[in-house]
Amino acid sequence: MIEIKFIPKEELDSIIPFIQMLNPNTDKEILIERLNYMKEISYHCVGVYDNGKLIGISGLWILCKFYAGKHIEPDNVIIHPDQRGKHVGEKLMDWIHNYAKEIGCVASELNCYPTNSKGIKFWMNSGYELKGFHFEKTLK
Length: 140
Hints:
31% of the residues lie in helices and 27% in strands. It has helices at 16-22, 28-40, 88-102, 117-125; strands spanning 2-6, 44-50, 53-65, 69-79, 107-108. A 5-stranded mixed beta sheet has the order 1-2-3-4-5. The longest helix has 15 residues, at 88-102. The protein is globular, with a radius of gyration of 15 Å.
């Protein structure tokens, strides 16, 4: 049985194996350090459970920007590879979109790595439109 719910802060360390799948070139210790900081700010995470076992996650940020208004940003969305093709991702996104509407969000936006062709296809099939480019500059 599939259950989707917020992961309590004290259980957020359970997402690290999923985060490692998306960030294989980042040391686990750095990911844990970042998660610990994110716990202190406005980060939330939703888990998808199959009979109590975590099989998918999505971080959530609630933001407001001039061009988008109040919106939700799913972040680091990943379904365990063994569970893909079973519509788990669609169920997770339906839950997120319903939650967003309940709290007054008017949109959802996200980032996807340009090399993630399966992710791009999923987002396009889910009604997301490519609106621009995400730029990043490392500060030293």
